[in-house]
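Structure first, sequence second, as always.
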Protein backbone atom coordinates (compact mmCIF):
# COMPACT_ATOMS: atom_id res chain seq x y z
CA UNK A 1 0.00 0.00 0.00
CA UNK A 2 2.79 2.34 0.93
CA UNK A 3 4.52 1.65 -2.41
CA UNK A 4 1.34 2.34 -4.42
CA UNK A 5 0.82 5.56 -2.54
CA UNK A 6 4.31 6.69 -3.53
CA UNK A 7 3.68 5.90 -7.22
CA UNK A 8 0.43 7.86 -7.22
CA UNK A 9 2.12 10.73 -5.48
CA UNK A 10 4.92 10.77 -8.12
CA UNK A 11 2.45 10.70 -11.00
CA UNK A 12 0.48 13.52 -9.45
CA UNK A 13 3.72 15.51 -9.11
CA UNK A 14 4.57 15.01 -12.80
CA UNK A 15 1.03 15.85 -13.88
CA UNK A 16 1.14 19.03 -11.85
CA UNK A 17 4.47 19.98 -13.45
CA UNK A 18 3.08 19.44 -16.95
CA UNK A 19 0.02 21.51 -16.19
CA UNK A 20 2.27 24.24 -14.84
CA UNK A 21 4.50 24.04 -17.86
CA UNK A 22 1.47 24.27 -20.06
CA UNK A 23 0.58 27.65 -18.67
CA UNK A 24 1.44 30.45 -21.12
CA UNK A 25 3.62 32.24 -18.58
CA UNK A 26 5.58 29.09 -17.84
CA UNK A 27 5.92 28.37 -21.55
CA UNK A 28 7.48 31.81 -22.00
CA UNK A 29 9.88 31.08 -19.20
CA UNK A 30 10.90 27.72 -20.63
CA UNK A 31 11.37 29.25 -24.08
CA UNK A 32 13.65 31.91 -22.59
CA UNK A 33 15.69 29.45 -20.54
CA UNK A 34 16.00 27.03 -23.46
CA UNK A 35 17.28 29.90 -25.59
CA UNK A 36 20.06 30.32 -23.01
CA UNK A 37 21.11 26.71 -23.41
CA UNK A 38 19.30 25.40 -20.34
CA UNK A 39 18.99 21.74 -21.32
CA UNK A 40 16.53 20.97 -18.52
CA UNK A 41 14.27 23.75 -19.70
CA UNK A 42 14.52 22.47 -23.30
CA UNK A 43 13.63 18.94 -22.16
CA UNK A 44 10.65 20.20 -20.13
CA UNK A 45 9.52 22.30 -23.08
CA UNK A 46 9.78 19.31 -25.42
CA UNK A 47 7.78 17.17 -22.96
CA UNK A 48 5.15 19.87 -22.66
CA UNK A 49 4.80 20.19 -26.44
CA UNK A 50 3.99 16.50 -26.75
CA UNK A 51 0.93 16.98 -24.48
CA UNK A 52 -0.17 20.38 -25.73
CA UNK A 53 -3.26 20.85 -27.87
CA UNK A 54 -3.62 24.59 -27.45
CA UNK A 55 -2.93 25.92 -30.97
CA UNK A 56 -1.93 29.37 -29.72
CA UNK A 57 0.72 27.96 -27.38
CA UNK A 58 1.93 25.50 -30.03
CA UNK A 59 2.18 28.34 -32.51
CA UNK A 60 4.17 30.41 -30.01
CA UNK A 61 6.62 27.53 -29.46
CA UNK A 62 6.83 26.74 -33.17
CA UNK A 63 7.84 30.33 -33.88
CA UNK A 64 9.84 31.38 -30.81
CA UNK A 65 11.61 28.30 -29.44
CA UNK A 66 15.37 28.35 -29.89
CA UNK A 67 15.77 24.58 -30.20
CA UNK A 68 14.80 23.34 -33.71
CA UNK A 69 13.73 19.95 -32.34
CA UNK A 70 11.28 21.73 -30.00
CA UNK A 71 9.95 23.84 -32.89
CA UNK A 72 9.55 20.76 -35.06
CA UNK A 73 7.67 18.93 -32.27
CA UNK A 74 5.33 21.91 -31.95
CA UNK A 75 4.79 22.05 -35.73
CA UNK A 76 3.81 18.40 -35.81
CA UNK A 77 0.90 19.18 -33.43
CA UNK A 78 -0.19 22.32 -35.27
CA UNK A 79 -3.29 22.26 -37.47
CA UNK A 80 -3.64 25.94 -38.31
CA UNK A 81 -2.77 26.17 -42.02
CA UNK A 82 -1.78 29.83 -41.95
CA UNK A 83 0.59 29.28 -39.03
CA UNK A 84 2.09 26.21 -40.70
CA UNK A 85 2.65 28.27 -43.84
CA UNK A 86 4.35 31.03 -41.81
CA UNK A 87 6.72 28.48 -40.26
CA UNK A 88 7.45 26.87 -43.63
CA UNK A 89 8.38 30.23 -45.13
CA UNK A 90 10.26 31.80 -42.23
CA UNK A 91 11.88 29.05 -40.14
CA UNK A 92 15.65 28.88 -40.37
CA UNK A 93 15.66 25.09 -40.19
CA UNK A 94 14.80 23.16 -43.37
CA UNK A 95 13.70 20.22 -41.20
CA UNK A 96 11.17 22.38 -39.39
CA UNK A 97 9.99 23.86 -42.69
CA UNK A 98 9.65 20.35 -44.11
CA UNK A 99 7.57 19.26 -41.10
CA UNK A 100 5.26 22.22 -41.71
CA UNK A 101 4.89 21.30 -45.40
CA UNK A 102 3.86 17.76 -44.49
CA UNK A 103 0.95 19.17 -42.46
CA UNK A 104 -0.19 21.62 -45.13
CA UNK A 105 -3.01 20.95 -47.59
CA UNK A 106 -4.04 24.48 -48.57
CA UNK A 107 -3.02 24.84 -52.26
CA UNK A 108 -2.71 28.63 -52.23
CA UNK A 109 -0.44 28.52 -49.17
CA UNK A 110 1.65 25.75 -50.69
CA UNK A 111 2.07 27.88 -53.80
CA UNK A 112 3.19 30.83 -51.67
CA UNK A 113 5.74 28.66 -49.86
CA UNK A 114 7.05 27.28 -53.16
CA UNK A 115 8.06 30.82 -54.06
CA UNK A 116 8.96 32.41 -50.72
CA UNK A 117 10.52 29.73 -48.47
CA UNK A 118 14.17 30.21 -47.56
CA UNK A 119 15.33 26.72 -48.46
CA UNK A 120 15.16 24.97 -51.79
CA UNK A 121 14.12 21.60 -50.34
CA UNK A 122 11.20 23.29 -48.57
CA UNK A 123 10.11 25.01 -51.79
CA UNK A 124 10.38 21.75 -53.73
CA UNK A 125 8.44 19.89 -51.02
CA UNK A 126 5.68 22.49 -51.36
CA UNK A 127 5.55 21.97 -55.14
CA UNK A 128 5.45 18.23 -54.52
CA UNK A 129 2.16 18.65 -52.62
CA UNK A 130 0.61 20.98 -55.16
CA UNK A 131 -2.08 19.57 -57.44
CA UNK A 132 -3.68 22.80 -58.61
CA UNK A 133 -2.61 23.08 -62.27
CA UNK A 134 -3.12 26.86 -62.43
CA UNK A 135 -0.89 27.45 -59.44
CA UNK A 136 1.76 25.09 -60.80
CA UNK A 137 1.72 26.96 -64.10
CA UNK A 138 2.09 30.29 -62.29
CA UNK A 139 5.12 29.02 -60.36
CA UNK A 140 6.70 27.65 -63.54
CA UNK A 141 6.12 30.81 -65.51
CA UNK A 142 7.20 33.33 -62.90
CA UNK A 143 10.30 31.66 -61.44
CA UNK A 144 13.67 31.56 -63.13
CA UNK A 145 15.72 28.40 -62.75
CA UNK A 146 18.67 30.36 -61.34
CA UNK A 147 16.43 32.01 -58.73
CA UNK A 148 14.17 29.15 -57.71
CA UNK A 149 16.49 26.21 -58.11
CA UNK A 150 14.53 23.22 -59.34
CA UNK A 151 11.14 24.57 -58.27
CA UNK A 152 10.14 25.82 -61.72
CA UNK A 153 11.17 22.53 -63.34
CA UNK A 154 9.31 20.54 -60.66
CA UNK A 155 6.21 22.59 -61.38
CA UNK A 156 6.49 21.91 -65.12
CA UNK A 157 6.96 18.20 -64.42
CA UNK A 158 3.66 18.12 -62.52
CA UNK A 159 1.77 19.99 -65.21
CA UNK A 160 -0.53 17.93 -67.43
CA UNK A 161 -2.92 20.59 -68.66
CA UNK A 162 -1.92 21.33 -72.28
CA UNK A 163 -3.36 24.85 -72.22
CA UNK A 164 -1.33 25.74 -69.14
CA UNK A 165 1.79 24.06 -70.53
CA UNK A 166 1.29 26.18 -73.62
CA UNK A 167 1.11 29.30 -71.47
CA UNK A 168 4.37 28.36 -69.70
CA UNK A 169 6.03 27.49 -73.02
CA UNK A 170 5.28 30.98 -74.29
CA UNK A 171 5.38 33.17 -71.17
CA UNK A 172 7.97 31.72 -68.74
CA UNK A 173 10.78 34.20 -68.20
CA UNK A 174 13.43 31.45 -68.05
CA UNK A 175 14.18 29.85 -71.44
CA UNK A 176 15.09 26.53 -69.81
CA UNK A 177 11.67 26.40 -68.18
CA UNK A 178 10.06 27.23 -71.54
CA UNK A 179 12.03 24.43 -73.15
CA UNK A 180 10.93 21.97 -70.44
CA UNK A 181 7.30 22.95 -71.05
CA UNK A 182 7.72 22.60 -74.83
CA UNK A 183 8.97 19.05 -74.39
CA UNK A 184 5.65 18.15 -72.72
CA UNK A 185 3.50 19.87 -75.32
CA UNK A 186 1.52 17.94 -77.90
CA UNK A 187 -0.39 20.85 -79.45
CA UNK A 188 1.11 21.07 -82.94
CA UNK A 189 -0.07 24.59 -83.72
CA UNK A 190 1.43 25.94 -80.54
CA UNK A 191 4.68 24.05 -81.09
CA UNK A 192 4.89 25.68 -84.52
CA UNK A 193 4.31 29.10 -82.95
CA UNK A 194 7.15 28.52 -80.47
CA UNK A 195 9.42 27.18 -83.22
CA UNK A 196 8.92 30.37 -85.21
CA UNK A 197 8.67 33.03 -82.51
CA UNK A 198 10.72 32.11 -79.43
CA UNK A 199 13.83 34.24 -79.07
CA UNK A 200 16.09 31.38 -77.90
CA UNK A 201 17.41 28.81 -80.36
CA UNK A 202 17.32 25.88 -77.91
CA UNK A 203 13.61 26.44 -77.28
CA UNK A 204 12.86 26.72 -81.01
CA UNK A 205 14.80 23.51 -81.65
CA UNK A 206 12.89 21.68 -78.90
CA UNK A 207 9.64 22.75 -80.53
CA UNK A 208 10.74 21.53 -83.96
CA UNK A 209 11.77 18.20 -82.43
CA UNK A 210 8.19 17.71 -81.23
CA UNK A 211 6.54 18.74 -84.49
CA UNK A 212 5.12 16.07 -86.77
CA UNK A 213 2.51 18.03 -88.72
CA UNK A 214 3.90 18.41 -92.25
CA UNK A 215 2.10 21.66 -93.02
CA UNK A 216 3.34 23.27 -89.83
CA UNK A 217 6.88 21.98 -90.39
CA UNK A 218 6.79 23.66 -93.81
CA UNK A 219 5.63 26.89 -92.15
CA UNK A 220 8.58 26.77 -89.75
CA UNK A 221 10.95 25.95 -92.60
CA UNK A 222 9.82 29.06 -94.47
CA UNK A 223 9.11 31.50 -91.63
CA UNK A 224 11.41 30.44 -88.77
CA UNK A 225 13.67 33.07 -87.23
CA UNK A 226 16.95 31.18 -87.46
CA UNK A 227 18.55 28.84 -89.96
CA UNK A 228 18.99 25.96 -87.50
CA UNK A 229 15.27 25.70 -86.78
CA UNK A 230 14.38 26.09 -90.45
CA UNK A 231 16.83 23.40 -91.49
CA UNK A 232 15.68 21.05 -88.73
CA UNK A 233 12.11 21.50 -89.96
CA UNK A 234 13.09 20.73 -93.55
CA UNK A 235 14.84 17.59 -92.36
CA UNK A 236 11.51 16.29 -91.03
CA UNK A 237 9.53 17.04 -94.19
CA UNK A 238 8.50 14.22 -96.51
CA UNK A 239 5.57 15.76 -98.37
CA UNK A 240 6.74 16.61 -101.91
CA UNK A 241 4.31 19.50 -102.35
CA UNK A 242 5.45 21.11 -99.12
CA UNK A 243 9.10 20.49 -99.94
CA UNK A 244 8.47 22.27 -103.23
CA UNK A 245 6.98 25.21 -101.30
CA UNK A 246 10.11 25.39 -99.13
CA UNK A 247 12.38 25.10 -102.16
CA UNK A 248 10.65 28.04 -103.83
CA UNK A 249 9.65 30.25 -100.89
CA UNK A 250 12.32 29.60 -98.25
CA UNK A 251 14.06 32.60 -96.68
CA UNK A 252 17.65 31.45 -97.17
CA UNK A 253 19.50 29.51 -99.82
CA UNK A 254 20.68 26.79 -97.42
CA UNK A 255 17.12 25.86 -96.43
CA UNK A 256 15.91 25.93 -100.03
CA UNK A 257 18.74 23.66 -101.11
CA UNK A 258 17.90 21.22 -98.32
CA UNK A 259 14.34 21.15 -99.62
CA UNK A 260 15.57 20.49 -103.16
CA UNK A 261 17.71 17.58 -101.94
CA UNK A 262 14.53 15.82 -100.85
CA UNK A 263 12.56 16.60 -104.03
CA UNK A 264 11.94 13.94 -106.66
CA UNK A 265 9.44 15.77 -108.91
CA UNK A 266 11.40 16.24 -112.16
CA UNK A 267 9.05 18.88 -113.57
CA UNK A 268 9.42 21.06 -110.51
CA UNK A 269 13.18 20.48 -110.37
CA UNK A 270 13.39 21.52 -114.03
CA UNK A 271 11.46 24.73 -113.34
CA UNK A 272 13.76 25.63 -110.44
CA UNK A 273 16.89 24.70 -112.41
CA UNK A 274 15.93 27.04 -115.25
CA UNK A 275 14.05 29.88 -113.57
CA UNK A 276 15.40 30.42 -110.06
CA UNK A 277 17.45 33.56 -109.59
CA UNK A 278 19.97 32.02 -107.19
CA UNK A 279 22.77 30.01 -108.87
CA UNK A 280 23.27 27.84 -105.79
CA UNK A 281 19.60 26.84 -105.85
CA UNK A 282 19.73 26.20 -109.60
CA UNK A 283 22.81 24.01 -109.15
CA UNK A 284 21.08 22.00 -106.43
CA UNK A 285 18.12 21.38 -108.74
CA UNK A 286 20.42 20.45 -111.64
CA UNK A 287 22.07 17.77 -109.50
CA UNK A 288 18.71 16.06 -109.19
CA UNK A 289 17.79 16.26 -112.90
CA UNK A 290 17.85 13.22 -115.16
CA UNK A 291 16.66 14.77 -118.45
CA UNK A 292 19.74 14.86 -120.72
CA UNK A 293 18.17 17.35 -123.14
CA UNK A 294 17.48 19.81 -120.36
CA UNK A 295 20.90 19.24 -118.86
CA UNK A 296 22.42 20.00 -122.25
CA UNK A 297 20.45 23.24 -122.53
CA UNK A 298 21.55 24.35 -119.06
CA UNK A 299 25.18 23.32 -119.72
CA UNK A 300 25.30 25.59 -122.73
CA UNK A 301 22.98 28.45 -121.82
CA UNK A 302 23.18 29.15 -118.08
CA UNK A 303 25.17 32.30 -117.36
CA UNK A 304 26.66 30.99 -114.14
CA UNK A 305 29.72 28.79 -114.48
CA UNK A 306 28.89 26.71 -111.37
CA UNK A 307 25.48 25.82 -112.77
CA UNK A 308 26.98 24.93 -116.17
CA UNK A 309 29.66 22.86 -114.43
CA UNK A 310 27.03 20.92 -112.47
CA UNK A 311 25.06 20.22 -115.65
CA UNK A 312 28.17 19.17 -117.58
CA UNK A 313 29.12 16.70 -114.84
CA UNK A 314 25.83 14.89 -115.53
CA UNK A 315 26.07 14.93 -119.34
CA UNK A 316 26.76 11.79 -121.38
CA UNK A 317 26.42 13.21 -124.92
CA UNK A 318 29.97 12.94 -126.31
CA UNK A 319 29.41 15.39 -129.16
CA UNK A 320 28.11 18.06 -126.85
CA UNK A 321 30.81 17.36 -124.27
CA UNK A 322 33.45 17.76 -126.98
CA UNK A 323 31.91 21.08 -128.02
CA UNK A 324 31.81 22.34 -124.44
CA UNK A 325 35.36 21.11 -123.76
CA UNK A 326 36.58 23.34 -126.59
CA UNK A 327 34.18 26.27 -126.59
CA UNK A 328 33.11 27.09 -123.04
CA UNK A 329 34.68 30.28 -121.79
CA UNK A 330 35.42 28.88 -118.32
CA UNK A 331 38.27 26.46 -117.66
CA UNK A 332 36.37 24.96 -114.74
CA UNK A 333 33.53 23.95 -117.08
CA UNK A 334 35.85 22.78 -119.86
CA UNK A 335 37.70 20.51 -117.43
CA UNK A 336 34.39 19.05 -116.28
CA UNK A 337 33.53 18.27 -119.90
CA UNK A 338 36.92 16.63 -120.41
CA UNK A 339 36.28 14.53 -117.32
CA UNK A 340 33.23 12.96 -119.01
CA UNK A 341 34.77 12.66 -122.47
CA UNK A 342 35.80 9.27 -123.82
CA UNK A 343 36.14 10.22 -127.49
CA UNK A 344 39.88 10.11 -128.20
CA UNK A 345 39.76 12.57 -131.11
CA UNK A 346 37.98 15.16 -129.00
CA UNK A 347 40.38 14.57 -126.11
CA UNK A 348 43.38 14.93 -128.43
CA UNK A 349 42.01 18.23 -129.76
CA UNK A 350 41.72 19.61 -126.22
CA UNK A 351 45.10 18.18 -125.16
CA UNK A 352 46.86 19.88 -128.07
CA UNK A 353 44.87 23.05 -128.69
CA UNK A 354 43.31 24.31 -125.42
CA UNK A 355 44.88 27.51 -124.15
CA UNK A 356 44.73 26.44 -120.51
CA UNK A 357 47.38 23.98 -119.20
CA UNK A 358 44.87 22.58 -116.70
CA UNK A 359 42.46 21.58 -119.47
CA UNK A 360 45.30 20.10 -121.55
CA UNK A 361 46.54 18.10 -118.55
CA UNK A 362 43.03 16.80 -117.84
CA UNK A 363 42.72 15.66 -121.47
CA UNK A 364 46.17 14.08 -121.47
CA UNK A 365 45.18 12.04 -118.44
CA UNK A 366 42.44 10.36 -120.50
CA UNK A 367 44.39 9.89 -123.75
CA UNK A 368 45.55 6.49 -124.95
CA UNK A 369 46.95 7.50 -128.37
CA UNK A 370 50.72 7.07 -127.97
CA UNK A 371 51.60 9.19 -130.98
CA UNK A 372 49.64 12.18 -129.63
CA UNK A 373 51.06 11.65 -126.15
CA UNK A 374 54.60 11.46 -127.51
CA UNK A 375 54.10 14.69 -129.44
CA UNK A 376 52.72 16.44 -126.33
CA UNK A 377 55.54 15.06 -124.16
CA UNK A 378 58.05 16.81 -126.42
CA UNK A 379 56.26 19.86 -127.77
CA UNK A 380 53.88 21.20 -125.12
CA UNK A 381 54.97 24.54 -123.71
CA UNK A 382 53.96 23.67 -120.14
CA UNK A 383 56.19 21.44 -118.00
CA UNK A 384 53.28 19.91 -116.10
CA UNK A 385 51.48 18.98 -119.31
CA UNK A 386 54.62 17.38 -120.73
CA UNK A 387 55.13 15.48 -117.47
CA UNK A 388 51.54 14.28 -117.56
CA UNK A 389 52.05 12.95 -121.09
CA UNK A 390 55.33 11.26 -120.14
CA UNK A 391 53.70 9.67 -117.13
CA UNK A 392 50.88 8.22 -119.24
CA UNK A 393 53.41 6.94 -121.78
CA UNK A 394 55.42 5.36 -118.98
CA UNK A 395 52.34 3.68 -117.55
CA UNK A 396 51.44 2.34 -120.99
CA UNK A 397 54.97 1.10 -121.56
CA UNK A 398 55.05 -0.63 -118.16
CA UNK A 399 51.69 -2.25 -118.82
CA UNK A 400 52.92 -3.35 -122.23
CA UNK A 401 55.99 -4.94 -120.64
CA UNK A 402 58.43 -2.67 -122.50
CA UNK A 403 60.43 -1.77 -119.39
CA UNK A 404 63.13 -4.12 -118.21
CA UNK A 405 65.87 -4.05 -115.60
CA UNK A 406 69.39 -3.07 -116.61
CA UNK A 407 71.84 -5.98 -116.59
CA UNK A 408 75.66 -6.06 -116.51
CA UNK A 409 75.56 -6.97 -120.19
CA UNK A 410 74.06 -3.56 -120.98
CA UNK A 411 77.35 -1.98 -119.90
CA UNK A 412 75.70 0.94 -118.13
CA UNK A 413 76.72 2.19 -114.71
CA UNK A 414 74.27 4.76 -113.33
CA UNK A 415 73.57 6.01 -109.82
CA UNK A 416 70.72 8.09 -108.43
CA UNK A 417 71.62 10.26 -105.40
CA UNK A 418 70.18 13.02 -103.26
CA UNK A 419 72.23 15.74 -101.57
CA UNK A 420 70.51 16.16 -98.23
CA UNK A 421 70.66 19.66 -96.79
CA UNK A 422 68.77 21.57 -94.13
CA UNK A 423 67.49 25.08 -94.72
CA UNK A 424 66.71 27.44 -91.84
CA UNK A 425 63.24 28.98 -92.16
CA UNK A 426 60.83 30.72 -89.81
CA UNK A 427 59.43 27.24 -89.09
CA UNK A 428 62.91 25.98 -88.18
CA UNK A 429 65.22 23.64 -90.05
CA UNK A 430 63.57 21.83 -92.93
CA UNK A 431 65.14 19.19 -95.19
CA UNK A 432 66.12 20.27 -98.70
CA UNK A 433 68.62 19.24 -101.32
CA UNK A 434 69.04 18.27 -104.95
CA UNK A 435 68.49 15.03 -106.86
CA UNK A 436 71.15 13.67 -109.23
CA UNK A 437 71.28 10.88 -111.78
CA UNK A 438 74.82 10.23 -113.00
CA UNK A 439 76.12 7.68 -115.48
CA UNK A 440 79.73 6.75 -116.38
CA UNK A 441 80.66 7.23 -120.06
CA UNK A 442 83.02 5.15 -122.21
CA UNK A 443 86.00 7.22 -121.07
CA UNK A 444 85.17 6.63 -117.39
CA UNK A 445 83.94 10.16 -116.84
CA UNK A 446 80.81 10.90 -114.81
CA UNK A 447 78.05 12.42 -116.92
CA UNK A 448 75.05 14.09 -115.25
CA UNK A 449 71.61 13.46 -116.70
CA UNK A 450 69.27 16.47 -116.46
CA UNK A 451 66.21 15.71 -114.35
CA UNK A 452 62.68 17.09 -114.59
CA UNK A 453 61.11 15.46 -111.55
CA UNK A 454 61.34 12.55 -109.12
CA UNK A 455 58.06 11.02 -107.98
CA UNK A 456 56.74 7.77 -106.43
CA UNK A 457 55.36 5.38 -109.06
CA UNK A 458 53.55 2.13 -108.28
CA UNK A 459 55.93 1.10 -105.48
CA UNK A 460 58.98 2.42 -107.35
CA UNK A 461 60.58 5.80 -108.00
CA UNK A 462 59.87 7.58 -111.27
CA UNK A 463 62.95 9.52 -112.43
CA UNK A 464 61.77 11.80 -115.23
CA UNK A 465 64.69 13.06 -117.30
CA UNK A 466 64.86 15.91 -119.76
CA UNK A 467 66.23 13.90 -122.70
CA UNK A 468 65.81 10.20 -121.96
CA UNK A 469 62.21 9.83 -120.82
CA UNK A 470 61.28 8.20 -117.54
CA UNK A 471 63.64 5.80 -115.78
CA UNK A 472 62.23 3.62 -113.03
CA UNK A 473 64.22 2.89 -109.91
CA UNK A 474 63.11 -0.27 -108.16
CA UNK A 475 63.87 -1.81 -104.79
CA UNK A 476 65.72 -5.11 -104.87
CA UNK A 477 67.02 -7.06 -101.88
CA UNK A 478 66.36 -4.17 -99.51
CA UNK A 479 68.22 -1.46 -101.42
CA UNK A 480 67.40 0.81 -104.31
CA UNK A 481 69.80 -0.44 -106.96
CA UNK A 482 67.62 -1.68 -109.80
CA UNK A 483 66.95 0.61 -112.77
CA UNK A 484 64.40 -0.11 -115.47
CA UNK A 485 64.28 1.33 -119.01
CA UNK A 486 62.88 0.53 -122.41
CA UNK A 487 65.17 -0.74 -125.16
CA UNK A 488 64.94 2.59 -126.99
CA UNK A 489 65.97 4.44 -123.82
CA UNK A 490 68.93 2.14 -123.26
CA UNK A 491 70.06 2.63 -126.84
CA UNK A 492 69.75 6.41 -126.64
CA UNK A 493 71.57 6.61 -123.29
CA UNK A 494 74.41 4.36 -124.50
CA UNK A 495 74.85 6.58 -127.55
CA UNK A 496 75.00 9.64 -125.28
CA UNK A 497 77.70 7.97 -123.18
CA UNK A 498 79.78 7.03 -126.24
CA UNK A 499 79.20 3.28 -126.23
Amino acid sequence: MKRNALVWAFCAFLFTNILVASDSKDIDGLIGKCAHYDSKACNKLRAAVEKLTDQALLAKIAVEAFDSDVRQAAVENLTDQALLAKVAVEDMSPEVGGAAIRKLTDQALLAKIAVEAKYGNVRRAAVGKLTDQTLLAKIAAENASWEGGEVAFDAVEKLTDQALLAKVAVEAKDFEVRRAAVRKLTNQALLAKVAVEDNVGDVRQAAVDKLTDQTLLAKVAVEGKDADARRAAVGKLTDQTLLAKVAVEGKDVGVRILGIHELTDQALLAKIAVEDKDPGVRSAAVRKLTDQALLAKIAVEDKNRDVRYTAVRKLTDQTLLAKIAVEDTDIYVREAAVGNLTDQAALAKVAVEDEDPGARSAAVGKLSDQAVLAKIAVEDKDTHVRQAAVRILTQQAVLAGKYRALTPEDGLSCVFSHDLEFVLTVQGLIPAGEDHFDCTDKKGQKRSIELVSVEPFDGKVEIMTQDFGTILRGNEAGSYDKYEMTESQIKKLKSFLGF
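Margin note: The chain is about 65% helix and 10% strand.
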